[in-house]
Amino acid sequence: MRKWPRKNDEDSIRARQQALGLDGEVAAIDLEPFAKAQEMLTGAAVIPVSVVGPVELELGEYELREPDGAVVETGRGRDSVLVPLAHTEGGLSASLHRGARAVAESGGFRTYVLADRITRASCFVCGSAAEAIELAAWIEDQLGAMQDWLAEHDDPSLSTFARLRGVKTHVVGPMCHVLWRWTTGDAVGANMMTRNSYVLNMGYVMERAPVKAERSILEANMGGDKKPSFEYFQSGHGKTVIAEATLTEDAVRRVLRTKLEDLAELAWAGTHGAVASGMQSVAFTPATAVAAIFAATGQDLGMVGTSSMSHGVARRVEDGLQVSMRMPGLEVATIGGGTTLPYARRWLEVLGCAGAGKVYRLAQIVAAATLALEISASAAMATAGSAEFFRAHHERGGLR
Q1: Of all helices (H) and strands (E), which one includes residue 139?
Q2: Which of 1, 50, 150, 229 could pair with 93 as two cysteines, CB 3.0-4.6 Å apart?
Q3: Rounded to two decimals, what is the model's pTM?
């Protein structure tokens, strides 16, 4: 078999295209802006993008407090946002728009950022459980010293943007699992905190610990990278955000074409269905909205698994139905990675989220849009026999 060309120079790209017999739409696009985005670049996949809204919301402005890195709200304001969705799912855009409209007529969304931590789950394999226990106690006691060491350590592979904020250990047998918690500014920070975790593991723990570990593993799966996990569901990963709205009876009846009582009944049944299935999230269809916004704005699509974890709740209140959604693992960025691609940058500009200082705004918009879709899809399911949900899929369902 002939060696497959791996570079992203013009000749290598063309050689791959010719070997596969690609032409027309797949290969005709100018690939130069995409050359740094991934390896063995060969073509492009074009996804249609809708723009829905306006999504009316009251959102917070946030910054990290030093030295502990806590997320602090510095102000609140109202905005009207148009949201780009890149997808091929019939009915998604119309449904999200319907949910946004119902909330807009009810007074809008309210969004809050609760926490900001990205984690790398390392592991040190020791000779015995006793040694692993001793190592865990030492690591937790060394947090301040580790922070100082990273700040002062002269290593070109270290990221100055990734800052160590916390550590959690878990001993099982001879293994000392360690969850390093970082903040990484407006980037998701996976590369940053991976580099820093490696230097911390090898240059500090392996060299200074009173227990000599037999092996250091950079990522040992205690967190749940790019997949749902209880650890991230409960303790957070990336941005932890809450979106909330209070639906009025009039908006539910006119826009969503159902009743408050039916929505409350669906929430009750759906919650217990989630419990019965052992579902990690308590929600209806959050990944659909998250993936569509991620694809439009150049986010890492592998992070949809973690980012779409949701915990939705609903209850009757005097003014209508209060609905909210907690999203504990939103891994979003407004700088770096795919956000630098021309199309992604432009859609981020439409959202008012391009560049530094915008990542908390983007996280809140994603949460509000996800709740909008959740409201609309739930309303369709709440109708008698779920007839509206059936009708939407029947009319837009594609092949017979």
Answers
A1: helix 129-141
A2: 50
A3: 0.93
